[in-house]
Fold this sequence. Notes:
There is one protein chain. With 337 residues, the protein is an alpha/beta fold. The chain is built from 11 helices and 16 strands. Strands 3, 5, 6, 7, 8, 15 and 16 form a 7-stranded mixed sheet that branches. A 6-stranded parallel sheet has the order 11-10-9-12-13-14, sandwiched between helices. It has a 3-stranded antiparallel sheet with strand order 2-1-4, with helices on one face. The longest helix has 13 residues, at 287-299.
Amino acid sequence: MFGAVIHAPGDVRYEERPDPVIEEPTDAVVRTVATCVCGSDLWRYRGIAPVPRPTPIGHEFCGIVEAVGDAVTTVRPGDFVVGGFNPGDNTCPVCRKDAQANCLNGAHYAGCQAERIRIPFADGTLLATPEPPDDDLIPSILALSDVMCTGWHAAVSAGVGPGTSVAVVGDGAVGLCAVLASAQLGAPTIIAMSRHPDRQELASRFGATHIVAERDQAGIDAVKELTEGIGADCVLECVGTESARLQAVGSVRSGGNLGVVGVPHGDLPVNELFWRNVGIKGGPAHCRAYLPELLDLVWNRRLDPGPVFDLELPLSEVAEAYAAMDSRRAVKVLLRP
């Protein structure tokens, strides 16, 4: 089979790779119908995270089960499935507390930007659709493997709900999904922080009530102006850079909450947050906890995160997919084998 391998910063190649096989009785093998590039993949592409050796890359997928191990009971060959970016058994003591991202037995994929994928802990990771989906649903189902669950996690972690004001820092796919999640959870005031007209338009389509294009102190002041001078009840940090984190800290009201889901590349001023009674929660999304509800919403067309994919390419053009996202010519690129 073929798949994406990152060799060095700026160097992603479409290469022949070994076909995945069942290695453990809890495994499945999935033929990929759609995969994509994540903003977190760009940390390595941009040289911010190390690439010590050529490595298969990617952690988002949906597809059709081709084979299962002897211990797998919840999916079978022929099922159309989606799984979160963080495979786990969904049975350990931590998973039973709905903290599946921190599964005591958690595993990793060997690169999901590929024609086929070995899925560890298939029962705990995969969820099957009721029947094969219509093609127009595939982008939204694919979004559930990471960005929609992550945006949802940001909103849930910050306590978004009816009556809350929300500011979203970050206008990538996760930030846009955080806007969509906030609208789904009933927030009446949703401020999207974005300087890009195309992303501003999608944020408004997803439910943003206000757009703030300013950054740093000017952006903080703009959020406060929209929230009685005090800042938002819930601020969702969906980037991970130090500047984005500080933007979030400045935009949250005293006594409010931060939902932090951007992969961290900077510290938070914990002492300041302590004295301001600001709550902090977040981290990698507990996809398996959210997938049943979100898949039901997508399947019944009450939730549509699919528009975050604004470019579709064949998997063989994965290098262009990375270049397009790196240069902000695309929000998120869907790849089809």
